[in-house]
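Long-time lurker. I teach an intro course on protein structure, and each term I like to show students one example going from raw sequence to a predicted 3D structure in token notation. This year I'd like something fresh instead of my usual example. Would anyone be willing to generate the tokens for the chain below so I can use it in lecture? Attribution to the forum is fine with me.
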Amino acid sequence: EVSPNRLFYVLLFSILVFFRIAYSTPIELDFDTLERWYIAGKIAEDWDFRWLTIDLHTMRWSLVIPQVAISSIFANSFLGYYVLPVLGYSFFTVFLVRILERFFKLPHWLLLIVAIAVTVDPMSQIMASQLKTNVFGMVYVVLGSYFGIVHIENRRFRYLALSICLFFCAYGAHLSYIFF
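-- Reply from a regular --
Happy to contribute to a lecture. Here you go:
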């Protein structure tokens, strides 16, 4: 039997993904996002990871390497550009809401308001459909925080190790996330 809490999060995630797809912005014409997408496609084609060393945009390994997996599936289709940002920002919102629920014991209706506020924010709408460092850094930080909380509650080393790895991935998305 599915618990109401689990059902809430599955429905929330599904709604967020559909919303993000419906309101995704066109592929940006700024150089760094297009370069990361292009380089991920090149790595997916020839598996030469030296492509990561071209410049500071391609060196964002915790953003480019997951995109390599998507580029392998979508083979340079523009649809592959949107998969990670849409899923990532949806995960970010769900886990942010989950942390708020665990820390503050907020009711679902209030958590839903938080999720809506994060979702309809104009900058969130742009970030949720672009290969920007913000999306990946925030996903890694919120997931690292979540698993850090789980470690504190359960005292299991695997959650601590996962939390540390996720914070390191946040650093890999952008240097400024090292402060977390």
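Some talking points for your students: The mean pLDDT is 90. Helices lie at 4-22, 31-46, 61-74, 79-104, 108-120, 122-127, 133-154, 157-173.
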